[in-house]
Prior knowledge:
It comes from Blautia wexlerae. By secondary structure, the protein is of the alpha/beta class. It has six helices and 15 strands.
Amino acid sequence: MKVAAIQMPTVKDKMQNIRTAGTYMEKIKVEQPDFVILPEMFCCPYQTENFPIYAEKEGGPSWQAMSDYAGKYHIYLIAGSMPEVDEAGNVYNTSYIFDRDGKQIGKHRKTHLFDINVKNGQYFKESDTLTSGDHATVFATEFGKMGVMICYDIRFPEFARTMALDGARMIFVPAAFNMTTGPAHWELTFRARALDNQIYMLGCAPARDTQAGYISWGHSIVTDPWGKVMKQLDEKEGILIEEIDLDREDQIREQLPLLKHRKSEMYHL
Ligand SMILES: O=C(O)CCC(=O)C(=O)O
């Protein structure tokens, strides 16, 4: 199974971002990836005031472009995330998932909203304009089940655990850590979720733009079920492509049976 993460820049022009994503998919088609993932808010500069302005209903032009790309390149597309508005006017940070025919087979609304205020560091308050989702998202493929969560969701160990217990083999994470939490926690968090669930994790971030209102850490990453970093980009625009060996996941789970050794009667999820 081959996965690809597109660490692309995000500019103000939504359609330009959609074209950039398409250009990258065209470029990597010779690699024949099975799964392609885009960054969090890949078509909308990551600032709370932008979310309601850029938001579209499910099935809108950005959704349609992603569905078309998935069908054209015959890939599972985890379409990063984009602001979604519902009938009631609520805005969500939403990741749509498409199959190889361009059919939507999953949809994750970011569940844990990113409201932080680090002294002399990053401030952000997604809840100013966003509403949170209310469930974990797992979708089925010919390789088995896969999970999707968005950025801050990764900090909540129970969330990845529910996906692993539900049978997910890999968790895809459109994300955008920043210059405060990125160096401190990005790699550590991916390795931790990978290790404690014995699962592959793939994070896809926007390329860093030092002029942006919110500066992305970049460093798209893939970690294995042993907790090891398989590959990690730097901050610049680029593509991460990696072969994933799911048998290795089975072997690790068999040899070090952490998931089986849980005392589930003692914990409540
Ligand atoms: O958890 C973090 O440090 C970053 C989270 C974030 O940037 C996000 O949820 O968009």
